[in-house]
Structures are given as C-alpha cells and as structure tokens.
Amino acid sequence: MVEVLADGWWAYRLGGATFALIFPIVGALLLRVGIHRRRAFDRWRSGDDDRLPHPQASPDGEGGFDDEFDPRLRDDYDPDYDYDYEDLAPRPSQPPGKGTVFIVVGAVVLVLGALHVLSTLAVPRPTAEVRSVDVGQCITAQAYAQGRMDAEPVDCRRSDATMELVSKGDGEATCPDGSRNSSLYPALINEVRTHCFALNLHEGYCYAIAGTFAPADCIVSVANVRVARRVDGTSEAVGCPSPARVMSYPEPARTYCFVAP
To answer: Range with the lowest mean pLDDT among 12-16, 107-111, 115-119, 247-251?
Structure first.
C-alpha cells in the first residue's frame, strides 16, 4: 500500500474518476430537462382539458353540457357577434415536446457514466515491471546519494559504479552483518524495502567521501582516500601498508586498504 501511494497510482485513479464524472453529470442534466419538459407538457394538457365544457346535471337527471360555458359551443353561435371572452382562460402555448428523448438519453448516459466511474476506481494497478537492481549489480554513487532504489544498474567496472548491492529485503530486513542503520554496509531503507550495498572501489583510484564514495582526481582537494589495495575473497587485512586504514566486509568477503591521496 505504501508503494502504491508513493508512486501516485491512487492520484491517477482519482483523476480518472473525476474526469469520468462528466458523463453521469451530463446524464443527470439531460434527465432533469426531460422531466421538466414532461411536467410542462402534462400541465399544458391538463389546462387544455379544463377549457372544455364539463358535464352538468340536467333537470331530467341525464348528463349534459352547459353550453353557456363557451359561446362558441352554442347552437346559435354567431361568429360576427362580439362575445365577452374575459372569463375564458387563454390557451397556453404548447411545450416544444414531451421530453421523452431527453429522459431516455439522460437515463442511459447516467447509468453508463456511473458504471464507468466505478470501473475507473476498481481498475487493477498496471502490472508494469518495476525496475530494481539485483544482488551483485552496481549503481552509481550519484544514484545512491539520491536514494534511488529503482535506479538502473550499471557496469560494475565503471569508475563511478561504487555501490554493489549485496542483499535486499523488506522494510524490516537487516544487512549481512545483522544491523540496519548502524551497519557496515551502506543501505537504502524505506517502509517496504531494504537494500544493503558494499563499496565497489578500484585499486589505485582516489575517492571523495561525502555521504558516498564518488571517484575523484587524486590531486584535487575533495579527494579524501586512495585505495592502496583491494583483496576479494577474504576479510583479513592482507598486504596492507602499515599506515593504511582497513575496511572488511564479511559478505561478500572483501577487504580494502585506504591511505591518504
């Protein structure tokens, strides 16, 4: 979960879902317009029915129509006569439509849009391969200084490939000497991964120690040490000059003899 949050995948999902909300919003708007038009049409039709003469009880008990309701319905109606139409409500204008198309389209877009939002949130995380250096491979001093656990491995024969990965584990793993933060092995640690490195230095080369070992010209002031001797396969100081400072790794077995540049 920490890696998922760290690489921004949830932010990507949230952005996709936010964009997908456009469709259900458009569907809801279309549905609302359709319902509004349908109600307007129903009101218009109801108002039109109210203008028609209603059945009234006739003296003989049989149903009939009161022809006084609208002069135009009387048998003696004279179109040239000026009748008083004040009591006759004006006929409202007919709505542009029943809104059926808007209702259908809006409902479909709303449902499909909601399903799209859910699918966006539920889509599985891409299974793209995560780059990671393997045990025995090297990274540059710069990549180590930047804390790049996903750095591309480089040829260990390069002068700047000063960090060789010797072990990797989860967020609680220890380095080969059984330690973590105070280990002999330089390490990169986060909540889910632990990468432990051994120095990969070349005999006769000078290096600048500033959080990591970066190659440097022996005549420049930033150069701190020179590798007088490197011995692989043993943790014993073999053939080191007397004033040399010795650094040994148990795994892989390796010994360095450091002197001043």
So the answer is: 12-16
